[in-house]
Design goal:
- It is a single chain.
- By secondary structure, the chain is mainly α.
- The protein contains five helices and four strands.
- It has a single domain, classed as Vaccinia Virus protein VP39 (Rossmann fold, 3-Layer(aba) Sandwich).
- It is 46% helix and 9% strand.
- The strands form two sheets. A two-stranded antiparallel ribbon has the order 1-2.
- The longest helix has 13 residues.
């Protein structure tokens, strides 16, 4: 039976995979260590939460591979005083928890200027 010690699994993912695969930003590594990925997947697959692979969530969607999330977060070069906008729950569910963790504030998509603009574009396109 696989270990369900998530703290050890998280440490292994960060130290033995993400760091070795080129993630260097300490804030990103800390975020990947801090955000509990096991809370974003169903109980049935929780034991696989710290595999460096995408995992199914709901409605045919997946939570992104940790390495991809770390690369995205690192490429943003976020500082703690910066803000990120989220589009409903997509930022959280798609693995954006670490991205939000690196930024100082997260704004809801419907209330942020970017979110309102995107919503208007989507509605105008009939999507």
């Amino acid at each position: 039976m696989p270990s369900t010690n998530f703290t050890q699994q998280r440490e292994r993912l960060v130290e033995s995979e993400l760091r070795l695969l080129g993630i260097r930003d300490d804030a990103v590594l800390h975020a990947m260590w801090t955000v509990p990925r096991e809370e974003f997947v169903s109980e049935a697959i929780r034991e696989f939460a710290y595999r460096n692979a995408p995992l199914p969530i709901s409605s045919g969607q997946t939570i992104s591979q940790p390495l991809i999330v770390a690369y995205m977060a690192e490429s943003l070069e976020l500082a703690p005083h910066e803000r990120v906008a989220r589009d409903r729950d997509r930022l959280r569910l798609r693995g954006g928890g670490p991205i939000a963790h690196c930024a100082g504030r997260v704004h809801g998509g419907a209330t942020s200027r970017i979110g309102r603009h995107r919503k208007r574009e989507t509605e105008a396109a009939g999507i």
